Amino acid sequence: MLLVKVEGARTRQLWCDLLGELRPGLVARPFDAPDARPEEARYVLTWAPAPGWLAGLPNLRAIFSLGAGVDHITTDPTWPRHVPLVRMGGEEPGQRMGEYVAWACLTLLRHGRDFARAQAERRWEYKVGEDTARDLTVGIMGMGALGAAAAPMLRGLGYRVAGWSRTRKAVEGVESFAGAGELDAFLARADVLVCLLPATPETAGIVNRELLAKLRPGAGFVNAARGPHAVVPDLVAALDSGQLSGAVLDVFDPEPLPAESPLWSHPKVTVTPHVASVARRRERARYVAEAIAGFEAGGPLPNLYDPVRGY
Ligand code: NDP
Ligand code: OXD
Predict the structure, then answer these.
(1) Which residues participate in catalysis according to the annotation?
(2) Span from the CA of 123 to the centroid of ligand 2 (angstroms)
(3) What's the CA gap between 65 and 72, in Å, rounded?
(4) CB 66 within 8 Å of CB 6
(5) Ligand 2 — pocket residues by CB below 6 A?
(6) Considering the entire predicted model, what is its pTM?
(7) Is 224 in the pocket of ligand 1 (CB under 6 A)?
(8) Nearest CA to ligand 2 atom 6
(9) Torsion angle of C-alpha atoms 77, 83, 84, 86, degrees rounded to 10
(10) What's the gap in Å between 21 CA and the centre of ligand 1?
(11) Measured between alpha carbons, how far is residue 105 from residues 54, 77, 109, 157, 212 in Å?
(12) Domains of the chain (ranges plus CATH)?
């Protein structure tokens, strides 16, 4: 049995219906269904389970995260660490994240925020910048599945692309920087900094005053990873001083972004509600169904969380 624990009774049922269709024989149930027995649960599909809930499932074989990030699961101190934790994968999340990053970089380049404000005030604001994408370097922090998918899309628009990761990468047309020792050189390249890192103790608060000061003056910033990566007062200070010319933010701490946050009304900030890469439900259900099929046939589970790396 697979238990689905996500918000909304109708949504839970939709997941169960899809999983049952894609893997006939798999009994998928909303976690709160009358016949959902914790001791029979072999798999769960979840986003942010209440702390302690996973620990109450004694016979789990795998946990499937609805998202590529799993911090909403691993922040539960009681989550069963001996159970494999599968991060969402497949092709669609990369395509969608690439689209979001491309849009965010272009909206920074082509003054999207200024035009949206001008339109809301019925103002004809003529503004054409000097640069084209070909004049700019996008620096992607986090060259994993999503960063690697975004890079060629940016290249296709004409941007130069640099990537920073823990280990060196060979992605065509992308200058690779690796580890803490190469972070400053990477930052010095970036006209637009894009954060696609996982949330780990090492990456918490990484986009702070010190880091922002190392970017080229007037750089843009895009955060589509996790809210805790960016220190909001430092971000606002960099925007106000002109060190940053603009920011596009999809993720916040907490979410939803509280109404009193200065980010909502900041003239240089575009806010989106954690929508950068939400793959279609059917595609995600297919990924889970295929992973279970492979696992039950004796193969390995894909895209596993590594407790040593923390992502
Ligand atoms: P991956 O695990 O595939 O990639 C993570 C990348 O970050 C890797 O390149 C890794 O390096 C690098 N990295 C991790 N820690 C460090 C570090 N300390 N220093 C330098 N580089 C580091 O993850 P994904 O690409 O699939 O996803 C990235 C994140 O995006 C997710 O964790 C999630 O938080 C966020 N996300 C946001 C979504 C949204 O809609 N806004 C949707 C989906 C995901 P290496 O390659 O060397 O291991
Ligand atoms: C995430 C996701 O991890 O939506 O944010 O996949």
Answers:
(1) 226, 274
(2) 37
(3) 9
(4) yes
(5) 67-69, 88, 277-278
(6) 0.97
(7) yes
(8) 67
(9) -60
(10) 31
(11) 39, 37, 6, 10, 17
(12) 2-90+279-296 (3.40.50.720), 92-271 (3.40.50.720)
Task: Tell the residue number behind the tokens 């986090």, with chain if given.
Answer: 142
Supply the DSSP symbol for 247.
Answer: E
In order along its 311 residues, the chain shows pLDDT tens digits of: 999 999 999 999 999 999 999 999 999 999 999 999 999 999 999 999 999 999 999 999 999 999 999 999 999 999 999 999 999 999 999 999 999 999 999 999 999 999 999 999 999 999 999 999 999 999 999 999 999 999 999 999 999 999 999 999 999 999 999 999 999 999 999 999 999 999 999 999 999 999 999 999 999 999 999 999 999 999 999 999 999 999 999 999 999 999 999 999 999 999 999 999 999 999 999 999 999 999 999 999 999 999 999 99
Could you say which ligand is closest to the alpha carbon of residue 225? 1
- What tokens does 83 get? 């159970």
